[in-house]
Structure formats: C-alpha cells, structure tokens
Amino acid sequence: MNLISLNIRPLLAILVSLCASGLIYVLGDHIKENAREAITFIAAIIKIVLVYSMVPAVLAGHTIRLELFRIVDDVDFTLNVDTAGIVFACSASTLWLLTSIYSVGYMRGHGEKNQTGYYASFAMCLSAAMGICFAANMITFFIFFEVLTIATYPLVVHYRDAEGTRSGRKYLAYTLISGQIFFAAMVIVYSVSGNMEFKPGGFLDKSMLPAPWALVVFMMMIGAGIVKAGVMPLHSWLPAAMVVPTPVSALLHAVVVVKAGAFATLRVVLYVFGPKLARECGGATILAWMAVATILISSLIALKKDNLKARLAFSTIGQLSYIVLGIAILSPLSTAGALYHLVAHAFMKITLFMCAGAIFVTTHKKDISEMVGLGRRMPVTMSAFTIASLGIAGFPFFVGFVSKANIIMGALKTGQLLFGATLIVSAVLALTYLMPVVLITFKREPVNPEFNTYGEASKTMLVPLLITATVSVILGVAPNFGLHLLDLAMSTGEAVFAHVGGVIC
C-alpha cells in the first residue's frame, strides 16, 4: 500500500469540490450551462473515486492521517479517516453526484435563476462536508462546520425574496450562535484537558470536569449538532428553509447539512466526552429524552401538513432524532444503528424529495390534497416514493429496517425498553403520514382532469430517484453490499465501547 498517496486522499477529496466551486464562481455567467454542469459531474466522480478508494484501508484497520499545519499551541490542522467519517463521506459523495444529475432536470425544467451560484455553493458545501468527515480534532472540525454554515446560506436565500431572506436570517442566527457556543465549550475542554483530538470512547473524565460542569459543557457542545440536526426545540429554521428549490432541500435534509449536525453529536458524545462521562453527567439522558420528544411531536405535526415538502421536512426532524437517540442510548449496537441510519435516511429521504420535486416541476402542485390520481400518470415516480416511504417506516427488506433494528436492539440490551418502544410507535406514525400520500396519488376517483396532460418527469430527474430508491432496497437486503457500510458502522460501535466492556447502563 502506498501510504503517501493514501494519506493525501482526504485532502484531495476536500479540494476537488473546492476547486470546482471556485472555477464555477470565477467563470460565472461567462460559462455555458453544459460546461458548468460538466465541471460539477467531473468533480463529483473524482470525489467518489477518492472516498471509495480509502474504504479498503479503513476496513483493514490502517490509519489514514495527514497533519497539515499548526493552528494553535500543539494543535494541528489534521485530517484523519476513521470508520465513522468514511461512512458519512461515502454517503455524501455518492449523493452529490446523483443530486447534481437531478439538478440539471429540475433547475432547467423549472427555469431557476442564479444556477451558477447554486452549483458553486453546492460544491463548496461538499468540501466542508468532507472536512467534517475527516477532521481529526475539534478545532479542525469547527472550521469546516462553520464553513458549511456560510456555504449553505446562499442556497437558503436562493430566490432572494422576502421569505427567503427571513429563512436565511433564521438559519444563520441558529447555526452561528450555536457554533460560537460550541467554540466556547471547546476552549473550556482544552483548558481542562490539554487535548482536542477525537478519540473513540472520549478523552474527558470526571477528574477533569466534575459532574455539574461536565453537564454544562456537554449541553454547550451538543447545541451546535442538535441545531443543524433539527432537534426540538431548536428546529424551526429547518421547516422555514422549505422555500428553497427541491435540490437544496435534498442537500439540507439528505446529503450534508442535517447529517453534519447528527455527525457532530456523535463526535461530541462518543469521541470527546465518551459514553461513561456522558452517562455520569446526565447529558446522554437529557439528549435521549429530547430525541424522543422530537420523534413523537414532529411525527404528529407531519400528519397535519398538506404541503408535501413541509410534511417531509417534519419527517426529517423526527428521523434525524433516531440518530441522536441511537447515540444517546450508549451501546455498540445503537451506535452502529445510528451511524447506519445516517446512510439509510439519506437515500430514503433524498428519494422522497426528488419525487416531490419531479411532481412540482411536472404539475406545479405542492399540496397533497391536489395530487389525487397523480400516481396513475406518474407511476414510476410514485412507486419510488412508495419504496422510500416503506423504508422510512422501517419495513423489512428496506434499508431503514436495518438501521432501526440495531438501534432498538441496542436499547433493549441496555434495558432502555421505553426508548425501544418509542421507535416502534414512531414507525407506525411514519406510515400514517407517508402512506396516505401514496394512497391519494393512486386513487382512481375523483381525478383532476388536468393530470391527463402530464407524464413522468425528465430522465435527468427520474433516473437519480430510481437509483436512490433501488439502493434503499439493496442495502436493506444486503447491508454490506459494495462498501461494507454496516461493517464500518459496527466497527465504530465496537471501538467506542471497547474500554467499557461494550455497555453503559
């Protein structure tokens, strides 16, 4: 194995989309749309190759580490590829390519303005996401986390109208304030431990931070993660951001942003505080109950939403809390399930949003009540929607079942039966807010006569959503197909809990 070339790949994975973003932005209106999109596709393919090429080394237990330069004192700007980071990176890089293909059909089909800015910002977001995946320490992580916030803002205010501006301000207020609180907590952690390096099982203990202060610092640090993940009551920016084009919604909900929040929570709980201190200070318990409340409340709100994207937004809020709850349960199985759900939810939810976008571009319909009989004119789109809905609900043979089963088993093995029951109840609720969409669209009567003029969306929109729907089935039947993502998730859980005998009760 060529370790030199291997170690440089995390940096290249960050730089390739950064270069694409810069090139698209600099050329601006002087670049033709085909050339602009070709740059995006080439960068996305290169990123996938770079990320995928690191998987065998990580599976084999090799260290992929790159120290670039000193930031402060003895803390370096360092990249490190571990099992947790590579899982997130595989998901994000794959979905960037598929979302980019979908974007061609959507942005052109809907005649969207400012497409150059859209592609440039999207690419920048993927660079930040790779940095988040591969950050070896808190300060490197923080830099990329904040870059993601700034890079996402132009996408949130894409339409440059009053509603978009309000949504953008709310997004910045939530994310930047929580980010600064995270920074303050990071300084405290460094002052008491002299360490910022992520470590499986954490590096803090109660001798460094007594229980009352540990809880305060814990809540300060997870705030940044749960804001981006949309955990209640810090969620309101996410539904407000539904004014954006559907591919941006896919970015927010499936590809990068909310996933970065969930990933941040994983790093803080399991790689900074560690399972033992997280339990002892009470932080994990508070986090778990916040997740439970979010899962149940968001599902009930989703039931009442007639706007399809709004319903999907509250579904995301609930589903991301599955990940947070899996982390907070503090067991190897629940950790593996949480990390695998990061992948599972990404493919299922992006399918749902792509279907919603295909419907909107084709029919200009946003509300579910206006879609009666539409499935008979768009059977492929709505079949993909059905597959993703069953996956979200956790039906067997779909990827969502694998991730949720591991979280539930983790809860049961640690005696946290109520959390396991919550997940089962939420699966029923997911059916109640998603399957009516399927039933309405395939209803025979009364059918809007207008739908007789419609057919399926363009192939550039249809093919990506079919691929993501297919992957949702493949990874449900064979969770380790291709990249061994479930094995990587399991390895993460085992590494984190190795020093505590596998269980924290």
Describe the protein in words:
The protein is mainly α. The protein has one domain. The protein contains 18 helices and two strands. The chain has helices at 3-27, 33-59, 83-109, 115-134, 138-156, 162-193, 211-229, 237-240, 246-255, 257-280, 283-304, 308-329, 332-363, 379-393, 399-413, 417-441, 459-477, 485-497; strands at 64-72, 75-81. Strands 1-2 form a two-stranded antiparallel ribbon. A hairpin with a 2-residue loop joins strand 1 (64-72) and strand 2 (75-81). Helix 3 crosses helix 18, helix 5 (138-156) runs antiparallel to helix 6 and helix 14 (379-393) runs antiparallel to helix 16. The radius of gyration is 21 Å and the shape is globular. The model has no long low-confidence stretch (mean pLDDT 87).
Element order, helices and strands?
Answer: HHEEHHHHHHHHHHHHHHHH
The number of helices is 18
Query: What is the average of the pLDDT values?
Result: 87
The radius of gyration computed from the alpha-carbon positions, rounded to a whole number of angstroms, is 21 Å
The count of domains is 1
Q: Low-confidence spans: pLDDT under 50, at least 5 residues?
A: none
> What portion of residues is helical?
over 70%
How many angstroms does the end-to-end distance come to? Answer: 41 Å
